[in-house]
Amino acid sequence: MTKPLRLGFAVTGSFCTFSKMLASMEECRRLGYEILPILSGAAASTDTRFGKAEDFIRKMEEISGRPVIRDIPGAEPIGPKNLTDILLVAPCTGNTIAKLAHGITDNAVTMAVKSHLRGGKPVVLAISTNDALSGSAAGIGTLLNRRHYYFVPFGQDDPEKKPNSLVADFSQIPQTLEEALQGRQLQPLLFSEK
After folding, report:
1. Best exposed site among 65, 72, 84, 143 by fewest CB in 10 Å?
2. C-beta neighbour count of 48 within 10 angstroms
3. Quick one: angle between helices 108-117 and 94-101, nearest 10?
4. CA–CA dist 67, 39 (Å, integer)
5. pLDDT digits over 170-188, tens only?
């Protein structure tokens, strides 16, 4: 009998996608992943019109059966203790993309990625940012060209009102994880909203 795959499920502050994030986490759990939940400081502490931080934390802990990692000391052992087979950042904000592209480690999510990557394991990003085709474009390009990074297919969510915005298709997270575990990027990477 094979052991379940261990998925680090990291969440940053694109609050409008949190309902999709929870549905994706539930789907990953249903597929048999053991989930280690991780939250950035903003995601762990900010109440918004989309919900209260503590409600999201409670739901993540219910789905995963584990306490949420919320700080750098909690995330640092992920690599040294070999706690994850694959790490997903969903949603991944433009701020987080910039930090990852420049090696900045200043919260639980960026530390989790850094720690996980020390073993050369895959990191999957489900981007959600209003400036993907402007300010965040350089960071996205950098990570597209960096080993061990994979992207959930993404596209423009509202080209008329938000022409620089991109969001991942969260329904493709399971397939992206499967491909990344084989060292492949799920294709097509870009999709068009219908």
Report:
1. 65
2. 13
3. 40
4. 11
5. 999 999 999 999 999 999 9
pTM of the model: 0.95
Q: pLDDT tens digits for 89-113?
A: 999 999 999 999 999 999 999 999 9
pLDDT in tens, 38-85: 999 999 999 989 999 999 999 999 999 999 999 999 999 999 999 999
Rounded CA-CA distance 190/86 in Å is 22
What DSSP string describes 125-180?
Answer: EEEEETTTTTTTHHHHHHHHTSTTEEE--EE-S-TTT-TT-EEE-GGGHHHHHHHH
Domain borders along the chain are 6-181
Q: Residue 1 — very low, low, confident or very high, per pLDDT cuts 50/70/90?
A: very low
